[in-house]
## 1
Amino acid sequence: MLSIRNLQVTVDDKPIIQGLNLEIGAGEVHAIMGPNGSGKSTLSHVLAGRDGYEITGGEVLFDGQDLLDLKAEERAHRGIFLAMQYPVELPGVNNMVFMRESLNAIRRARGEPEFDAVTFMKRVREKARLVDLDDKLLKRNVNVGFSGGEKKRNEILQMAMLEPRLAILDETDSGLDIDALRIIAEGVNALRSPDRSMILVTHYQRLLDYIQPDYVHVLVDGRIVRSGDKQLALELEAKGYGWIAGEAAA
Amino acid sequence: MSSTQETVDELVQTGYEHGFVTEIESDTVPPGLSEATIRTISAKKQEPEWMLEWRLKAYRHWLTLDAPAWAHVAHPPIDYQAISYYSAPRKKTDGPKSLDEIDPQLLDAYNKLGIPLEEQKALAGVAVDAVFDSVSVATTFRKNLADVGVIFCAMSEAVREYPELVQKYLGSVVPHTDNYFACLNSAVFTDGTFVYIPRGVRSPMELSTYFRINEARTGQFERTLIVAEEGSYVSYLEGCTAPMRDENQLHAAVVELVAMEDARIKYSTVQNWYPGDEQGRGGIYNFVTKRGECRGDRSHISWTQVETGSAITWKYPSCILRGNDSVGEFYSVAVTRGKQQADTGTKMIHLGRNTSSTIVSKGISAGAGQNTYRGLVRMAQRAEHARNHTQCDSLLLGDQCGAHTFPYIEVRNPTAKVEHEATTSKISEDQLFYCRQRGLSEENAVSMIVNGFCKEVFKELPLEFAAEAQKLLSITLEGAVG
């Protein structure tokens, strides 16, 4: 479904991703772990199409099609979703209205009929239960006055509403207490399906206790230096990133 | 980043959809201003002698004044002798007795603007007075209104038909000595709307005036007077557009509101005069004096304005809170883009006890637009326990524009309470990316964020016009991203 081949990315002429290769098949869950500054967030943003990154080499194919030429919204229309590390506040924009505009923009782009208000409301209520999000938050402005955990749950709610084909969760676990983490993980697990792939970007292996990945990759200096299964994450937890970084340098 | 710069550039190329010119024969007096011009206007309007004298007194005073220079706007000096002060569509008959006799070209012009003047096609519950250049060409639903005693007619007609009311109230809120442009208006005003709501009457419909400047080299100087007697209520809306022309045209209006005991006036404006092109050529100079007086106890005046047009806007819809427990409100969205300049805000003059006022101002600047909020809150010595809350927010789109805030606060009573809050923000790259990642185009994202920014003001507009204002804002800001 997603093929990243020899991807190279610079920010302000500084190389961040330096020849990254990754193949993700339909329905697979891949965890990408790495120390601070290893390029994890850059990878998430580049896949989602954020401006400000220069692609200096390589290619990214999504369903065999070149992804890098598409605008961020066009990638969203094709089913790419990024749950942000720092969900943004939109003062004055109602959360429910935002989700409806978003869903309908994507449906329009795909030539599907828009959701009417009733169908939409039913769906939001149903999905909000999945992440245990209070109805009151649906009526508030997007992320304004939300706690850290509420913001992250709101991201997973949007993911549930949009039903992406590829979901990238960028440090969704950061800043969460254990209860919030469990609720979010349950929400994410409920969304696992044979035609939905996921990339979990995380610094800690804690998240992976709740969401079992099929593969674990370790990113150091913009390259995947080791790939394995869940065991690799546990090993990292025990030995720290220095262990692999040292090997990679050698 | 680079894509952002491109979209900012696109912003100024957005078209102005009301820029057409109506080809209609008109009766236009030659440019120039003198006592003779004023006598001509007065004669054309078949005015009584007192009205002419009133005008001449204002004109003589105007000759002693200098144009104000304190506003945060820049423009070349205005040549008042180069302006024509009267232009009216030439009538084919003696004057339309009913809407059927109105020149079809005029009806067509208003239809194009989305303001059908045929009553059967009109927006339900809204009566319209259509002012074309210097004259009112039609006023709808007059009979329905007259049935409950509401007077809704052209100002020139009111001068002839209701002289005692006009003499009593005209200039009682904005005297001709008030300021340079109000004084000029007093001398040369041509038409406008007169509204009188009798005691205890709630106007059964929204009243509105639609102003259109059509002729080249003319100014529009209209005068609106609304009087709400004890315990009455009226909601009034005005809209304005003009053709695209290379020259600057002057619009210097005066609006006076009088609210007696327990009366309430809600006055809404959607101003979309031609703003000029991207080089700053042409556009309307909108120099307007608007003031309401809460004359009676517990009276209430509320101004809501959405200002998207004009090359330069200079206006401060104000409230004089004379009655005890009276309430003044000002809700404003002002947008400047391209080379537009706006210096706008309000004055809340608290004279009575327990008077309260609310100011919510939202300024949006894009392109090379300059947006200034200027507001005065004055608590007079006898304004015991008066309160004001001011909230003044600026949103910047792009890095060529400016937002300025000049709040003036004068408190002469120790029990008065004044609060002022102000914020300045930009639409951030993060916000845009967030919206686009959720499938929204950049334009939709900006329009959603801007509408969110203006929500507090839009909710004050009458329902029919809130949607129009939102649409207008999204057209105005098409491609404006920073």
Note: Residues 22 and 109 of chain B are 6 Å apart (CA to CA).
## 2
Amino acid sequence: MKFVGLILKSARRSKRRTALTMISVALAVFLFSALRAVLDGFDAVSAASSSTRLVTIRSTSMIFSMPTSHAEMIKSTPDVQDITWANWFGGIYKDPKNFFGQFAVDPESYLRMYPEIVLTDADRQAFLADRTGCIVGDGLAKKHGFKVGDKLTLQVGIPVYGSRDFDFNIRGIYKANGAAVDNQSMMFHWKYADERSTPKGQIGWVVTKIGNPDRATQVASEIDAKFANSPNETKTQTEQAFSASFASMLGNLNLLLGSVALAVVLTTLFVAGNTMAMSVRERTTEIAVMRTLGFPAATIFVLVVGEGLVVSLIGGAAGAALARIIVNGESLGLTGGFIPAFGVNNGNVVVGIGLSLLIGLLAAVIPATMASQLKIVDALRRVA
Amino acid sequence: MALIELRDVTKSYKRDAIDIPVLDRVTITVDAGDFMGLMGPSGSGKSTLLNLLAGIDRPTRGSIKIGDTEISSLSERALAAWRARHIGFIFQLYNLIPVLTAFENVELPLLLTNLSKAQRRDHVMTALGIVGLAERDRHYPRQLSGGQEQRVAIARAIVTDPTLLLADEPTGDLDAKSAGEVLTLLQRLNEEFKKTIVMVTHDPHAAERASHLLHLEKGTLVEQVVQRQGA
């Protein structure tokens, strides 16, 4: 403990350089935490997905639609207990930057299929009864100040829905009970969108509820077999696999984001290492004086490493705190509901701070070794 | 009673493949309580001899015994511990740590001891009191004059009450007035506090303060002078 003051004083020797090093470590930890939050968000969605729900999309890609008749044929598959369907709408709320997920759904079956969408009975009834009604997540409502009874207008984003704006009545604000559903989305009646759709009677995906999760693979095969060799072949997966494939549309996220994080951390490591080496080089005489006073080589090593750790720890803690504030800020809705469980959790904060300590340690090891192995006489002669 | 005994000490440095001799079979005895001045032209080996006595350099051959310890055979770690306990070193350029206050600079060697914070404070204030700078304890080196910096450096050297004080041209960077104050202080430490001092100097005025003088030339002891008796 008696050396802590000495370490802090040394770290404050060049305030600007120390501050810049701290900022670089803070940025590295911030980016690492934010990127981890994206991956964790996808993992959370997969983990929270139901094992009794299957999702059927067009075999070519989910951006292609299929006729509603597919839903009826899927319903008749053995072991299927319930079905619902939905379409991606892609409308624009005032400005494209206000992006959030909008889904045209079959309201009754959709709410039945997703008990995670929590609505009051009154809001549920109001939504079901109003052809132009919609429900919005509480996160989205908070972000845009939506209230039940408000009007909501979306510009058409995908040409198949024509060119006229769509007007909606907000009939309910739902809470998401689990990561499988996000609280940043909007759902409305599929029929309302279909009225203006060209061609009509198209759906994006079908969600199927089965009784026995052990038969998921078999049921999926049976569904896909029904549409084999038709113009609209399908691909059916468990909801978990569907979520994973949804994420994989963006490419190998783990590799991509992991590479970015690694590049940032390595760059910061070199910056911090160079700073520490410069700092030690400038203090050659002082270190020689301390060795003359009787400071053992091991103590010199600990002092330099301690300085690296303190600088990195402060930067890392600041970066992790910043990530918590910015990424977890509900009102920001950074992913527009694309990743429902997006946020920097405690585990990521701990890993981020641990990473900063690792940066500090690795950056300081070589300068600390150089400092502790300094030949006192040579070092004194170099400056004197 | 002999405190320092050097026997046939030789020191040479290797530059590339060439041996450069610095000290050649030097034999010296310094009694406890002596104030030894070490003179000689540049390159005569004065500072090298001082470094050997301080245990920050090792002889190529020969024996260096200080008190009961043969320091030339100590390990690096043991030598560091020995320096902390027995050596107070005063540099020509003071070599205070610029980011530490006078108090913290003097406290530095005490961080290696088991003294409590309060005990360290007492020791530091005593040392600063001896050099007449107790009221400057919160000042940084840049806020002190050269003479004051050297006095703080002397306080740092004596704060552990070492067996031996070694001074390498302690007045070499000071004006005449400050140099006089520093020499008076060293003389006082020798006479009043019975500190054994070995001082390297070029300055004949500084050398006058020593009780004994050694002259080195080309790494060899050429003359030994007794200036004052009973020191």
Note: Chain A has two domains: 4-45+252-383, 60-232.
